User: Fold this.
Amino acid sequence: MAKVKSVFFCQSCGTQSTKWVGKCPSCSEWNTIVEEVVTSAPATKGKVRLPFTVNQVVPIQDVKSNPETRVMLPDAELNRLLGGGLVKGSLCLLGGEPGIGKSTLLLQIAIQASNLKILYVSGEESEQQIKMRAERVGMKNEQCYILASNSLDTVMDKAAQLKPDLLIIDSIQTLYSGYIESSAGTVSQIRYCAGELMRFAKESNTSVFLIGHITKEGYLAGPKVLEHMVDTVLQFEGDRHHIYRILRSSKNRFGSTSEIGIYEMQANGLREVENPSSVLLSEHEDVLSGNAIACTIEGARPMLIETQALVSTAVYGTPQRSSTGFDTKRMNMLLAVLEKRCGFKLASKDVFLNLAGGIRVEDPAIDLAVICAILSSNEDVSISSKNCFAGEIGLTGEVRPVSRMEQRIKEAEKLGFERIYFSKYNVKNIQANLYKNIELIPVKHVEETFSSLFS
Ligand code: TYD
Ligand code: MG
Assistant:
């Protein structure tokens, strides 16, 4: 008979302990330890389950690389994010806040990939609800099968019969296996179900997509083990009330993690945004103070993004500093640089900073645009919308060089900008005579930028 015992698991990091404690000894989170009943699975008793490959030692030059291991999905952004298509037999996790569009994105792929046989499993919606959504988005694939089930065993049975190219699970938190006695969504269930799905993916060479919920702090719900187990982790972010959604990869065994995909949520599903600069620049004729355009690179693509700042006299004793899309600590650092190195008095001012389109940027090259937008608002002098900026700011106020300057200049020139401000240290890496329609303005220090801009 199977032995039943109760174990305490931390719901945040997955640490196991034999008794209940208030604070997890591993991740120091409070009130995350939950009792779960674990049955040691009788199915494995007496026989050892074989691993999914035959273990052999092979010299690496003898391993044949197979060019056909990737399949193209009907979504160019996702293909690029995955490193050039979906790898067969890979396990991919898609996380994001409720209502951001995770189910929509994967259902859209399921019903539009006419070259693939797909099984879409939903533990959250009924068949009719899935159908209603599919009709809104528009169906193309005749080989898309749906299954509304919570049971891992049913899913595995049906998948083994159907032999799909791609299995989509919406969501891993609703999946339940009879081998584990705790309820769906607990650490032991998630770990077990994900482990079984991984085994299935590797054994049958089927790609598997898992949808995962995230906690209110923004982490993927369930143990970190889940993130370690899968090959790719994608995060869907953006403001639910905004139409733009950003897909980022935070782990990818088959490609780079610096790529992002941009989508627009429309009445008939998610649409890919091919030219992000066109949506991230607002088109106003009259030039207002506090706006500056940054030339950034996210992943492989250069993008021009509008940064807006508002500086006003603080009404209350402590001035407010807030920013959307940009690290507030970094903004405080830039304000300190302006105060100390350039002599602007901002200590008693409220400063608000906003990046257009609800996007979050990690490229340090945005610093120069941020500092110019803040100063433009403070002095109430506008910056021409034909100028753009790319440079990182150091603590001494110097403009530091940034990567791939040529690509940035080309994009700015293509979009009709007339002047680009960048670091003097970048000059040696670029061929200035290539750019006929854009004026290159190398600067060494922020003060030099201001005197060239505002005088
Ligand atoms: P959904 O995919 O259900 O989110 P998740 O699975 O991440 O929880 O997306 C739901 C939101 O998307 C919902 O609030 C409505 C909106 N939406 C559209 O605007 N257009 C559409 O065509 C669809 C299907 C959803
Ligand atoms: Mg959903």
Notes: The pocket of thymidine-5'-diphosphate (ligand 1) is lined by residues 96, 98-104, 133, 136-137, 265, 267-269 (CB under 6 Å).
